[in-house]
Each structure stands twice: as structure tokens, then as C-alpha cells.
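Q: Hi! Curious about what Acetyl/propionyl/methylcrotonyl-CoA carboxylase subunit alpha looks like structurally. Here's the sequence.
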Amino acid sequence: MFSKILIANRGEIACRIIHTAHRMGIRCVAVYSDADADARHVAMADEAFHIGPAPSSESYLKADKIIEIAKESGAQAIHPGYGFLSENTQFAEACEANNIVFIGPPSSAIAAMGSKSAAKAIMEKAGVPLVPGYHGDDQSPETLRQEAEKCGFPLLLKAVAGGGGKGMRVVERMEDFDDALAAAKRESKNAFGNPDMLIERYLTQPRHVEIQVFCDQSGKGVYLAERDCSVQRRHQKVLEEAPAPGLSEETRKAMGEAAVKAAQAINYVGAGTVEFLYDVDGSFFFMEMNTRLQVEHPVTEMVTGQDLVEWQLKVAWGEPLPLEQSQVKTRGHALEARIYAEDPDQDFLPATGNLRYLSTPDESAHVRVDTGVTEGDDISIHYDPMIAKLIVWDETRDQAINRMVQALEHYRIAGVKTNIRFLHALADAQPFREADLTTGFIDDHRELLFPKSRLDTHKALVLAAGFVLEQRKSREVISTDPWSPFARQNSWRMNSEYAQPLQLQVGDDIHDLKILERDDRYQVYVGGSVYNLTMRLDDDYLQAVINGHRISVHGNLHNDQLVLFYEGDTFNCNLYKESYGFEEMAGEGSLAAPMNGAIVAVQAKVGDKVKAGQSLVIMEAMKMEHAIKAPADGVVTDIFFAEGDQVSEGAELIAIEVTADAEEEAS
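A: Let's find out. The predicted structure is below.
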């Protein structure tokens, strides 16, 4: 077995690989960019090498530098993880040319599946069922337009060299085709260096079911159950599970055998995933093959009891597959939720910030957390915004869902927006519990997945006030005289009762509270009501009784910003001070950057008349494009940035003079 490997990746997957390698007695070499000097994967590795500036194009994608470090460190093999160079044919070839084992498939297999159009041609020849569409070499707009007409609508434009939802567009009608094609090509070129597209019929009620395959160097292959990854946003997976609910044993076997056939058709070696679209009538169609370890591989590990990274290392060393197909068994049910720094309420806009507070559920045989961050780390614009993967297992699907709901309630983050509340609503939604799954699940159930807060606003304000006051008391210096009234920490005043004023800002609303403190309780006055409050604060855990209702929350107070966590929900407020000067980031008639990122395209010029909703600026952040649209009809008066510029969240991009008609309509 290898004695030392280099991991050409970062974040949770680098940590995941190190965990197994260390268990097998293998030393690990990490690489890191300027942004990752203090990262968790660097601390876990036996040694680490600086590789370049923060942008991945200048660090984690520098294949020649990684090869050089592997040689210098004496690493016998390189594990690419997923993303970055994991499906880069040239990198795999460079490893082979330098006598370094690439822990993945041969470069020829990556090349065969790296082009989605070429992959479909190979699968067609191998007898694997395909979705109707076009995957030819002629990429002229005229040809693509003609093929779109033949395919019919709705259709899916998909980057030939793509993955992770990038370079993909659903087109509902011919009138939208040209704009969608231009945007998909531009995004694909930026992400993969290849603007070529393929066209597929867009199935309206499909499920995304994928098969985990493994092949050894002798050509033997097995499949290790399947995963359902239907719940997606922007064509990126949000929640995955194994096994896929509702599949017959006949379909499961047919799909598994087709996946192995697909892998063997390209002389595959190692871990791979064959993705299928599964239709309501039970038919399934080859979609693509990912020639690497998948993000969602832990759910397969949980139901099979196998360590897939260990399998990768053994197969790369030349050992046979650890199990025959007849020996592959599954038990129970597993789910994985991807915890992202993003704002679900703003169309899942990626978020940046500091993880100033991070508390995770306790790990056990039922709960697993794969992460590459620790409290205090920054989520930057340079990499994917995934914070962690939360994986749960139990005997049945319903029990596993209950585990997931509970674990999400114990996952608490402050300092950056996350999708935890959304995931909690998703896992607990009745249609999900009933396995009513399609790739359009999120759009079909938006009302269920974006619920109102579980906390009554007034009760939340009372809890917030109590948390603030109790934390202040815990930090005050207690008088050395136990008989002094000032030692009682209850705002004592001689000959009078003193109601402390407190202003809390929630969104744009400022709430005036008054708190009367006695020895054993508080009286909190808010919104014309009075609440009797008793409580106890232990570190970040507040146990309270409000007018006889016992309620417990966790909280984090930092620089006058308070977050309370309650049953998967959060309540955010600020201690308001007049000097804060809260203002809107951008006034009427202006466009502000909703995130840190880069300007990809400016689609207007000074003097242009624009309509409300018209796309004016395209920004790129965390490898995804976002259209910034006009807030109202008007005339462009100023443009403050140009293509290629880096901008910060809140920066004004374009100024618009709102026309009189638009102002009248607004009033």
C-alpha cells in the first residue's frame, strides 16, 4: 500500500480523504492557497505546501505545481478529490507521465466521459438508454436552433464539459433560446474553458437516480446501490438519500447493471457515478457519468458499511475489488444534507462571511458531519460555499428523516447566512416524507419550504432581551460585599423600581422594550403586553419560562448582533443605537451588488432606456453567474464598474434616473 499520498484539493473532501488515509497508516501531503493557510485540512495533514494566491486558477488548478510538489514531497500518488482537477484529462496524463499514481480512472476514461456529447455516443453504442436530444460536433447557433426545434420544448441546454449545474439552462420556448444559449455558453466557457453545448429533452417530472460503480484494474465491476438526488436547486443537489425510495428490485438491478456496462465500455477503474433520469413510468435514461468520487458518497457508505475512499486507495494500488456483486449488501436508510453559505430567500444567492459561532450535532453511529471548517473560519468568494455535509442513518427512511430533522436543529451557525432553516423545512415537509420526489420538488413546494418563523415575534423579543441581560450579568464584576444591593445585579434603585429600556431592531422595525427586573424574574413590556419571564443562561443555552410556557433556545451575541436558534429556525436582531445610522445599501433607481464577486458583463451603457426587470449586469460569484436587473423603468445615468472588475457586497453598480411613469406606478 502507498506510504504517502498528496491530496490535490481543499475543504471537507481533503479532510475526508485524510481521515481514511491516516486510518490506513498512509501519510498525507496537503496543498493550500493564501486563503487556506490556516484551514482545517492543512492542520490535519502530515505536511503541507503553499501553492499560490487565493483564486483557484492560480492555486488548486495549477497542475504543474502540484506535480512538482508531489515529487518534492515523495508522494507516490495523488488523490484529486472532486472538483478542481479531478476530471482533468491532462492532469491525469501528467501524473502517469511522471510515474505518480492518479487515484482515479485512466485519462482515457476521463476523456471519454468528459465530453457529454461523446459520452452519449459511447453509451448509445453500449446499449445504455439515452434521453432524446442533440450531442453533435456542429455548434453553430443555426444548427443548435434547428436541433432545438426537432427536440421540442421544454429542453435543457447543458455544457458539454460541465458539471455542478454550471452552464445549464432550461428553455421553455423558442423565443428564449438565443438568450439562454448565449448565457449558458458564456458560463460554460468561464467555468470549464469550453463553451460547447448539448441539447436534451427536458422531462417534466423526472427523478435523478444515480448508481455508485467501482471497477478494478482487471476490468471487474460492481455497483454499490443507488442514490436519489432529485431535490435540487439551480441543477445542484441539495439533499440526497440511499437507497432511492420506491424503486422495484427489477429496476434497481437493471439500472445497476446498465451502470456497470457503461463503466466497462470505457475501461473504467476506480470510483465513478452513472447518473440516470428516472421517469414516472419507470423508464430510465443515461444522463452522464462523473469520473470521480461524488460529494454524496457518504450515504452509500452508511447503507453499505463500506469506506469508498479505502476502496479507491486499494484499487489504485492494484488490489482487486474488496467485494463481489453478490456480497454487496445494504441496510437501513441514509440521507445527506449539504449545508451551504447562501440565502434561500434570495434565490439561494451565495453568501460570504465569518463563522463567528459554529455548533454541530454530536456524531454517532446515526449522525456524521463531514466538514473542512472550524469556528472562526471565513467563507470567501473564491471557492464553493459549502460549509459541511450532514449525514444521518437509521433503520427506515422515516426514522432517518426524523434523525435529519433533529440533527439540523442541533446545527447552529452565526456570522454568515446559511440554508439550515430551509433544509429543516425540506426534510420535515410532508411531500418529502411521502417520497413525492422530482427534480422540480423545490419549485413545486415553495410555500412549505419557506415557512413563517416558528417563534412568535413578541416571545422572540422577550427571549432576546433575556439573553442580552443575562449575558451582561455573567460578564459584570460582582461586588465583594454580598449584602450590597448593587451586588444583586438587578438594576436596583433606591426608593423606586427601574424599568430598563432596550431597543431591538428586527429587519427595518425597531421595537421598544422595557424590562423590570426583580430577584427571581423579569417583567418585559413589549407591544402593549407584559410578559413574566424567568430563565437560566448556561453559556449559549437559555432555558426560559414565559407566562408559564417553558421554552429553550441557544444564542450568540456578537458586537450587538444577536442570533437565537430554535427548532431549526433562527431569530436575528440588533441592539439598536441611534448612532448606528441604519441605511439601505442602495436607494431607489440604483443597483447594488448583492454579494462579493466579479463583473462578467455590463449589458447597458449610459443613456440607455431600460425597463424594470431588464438584465443590466452579469456577476460571477462562487463559480455561478447572477443577473442584476433594473429595479424600475428609467434611463442609465452612471456605470461605476467595468467587465472584469471585482466588487464588494453593497457596492453601487449602476445609477438609473427613474422615469415619471415608473414613479407614478410605484405611488
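A: A fun detail: Residues 483-488, 492-496, 578-588, 662-667 have pLDDT under 50 and may be disordered.
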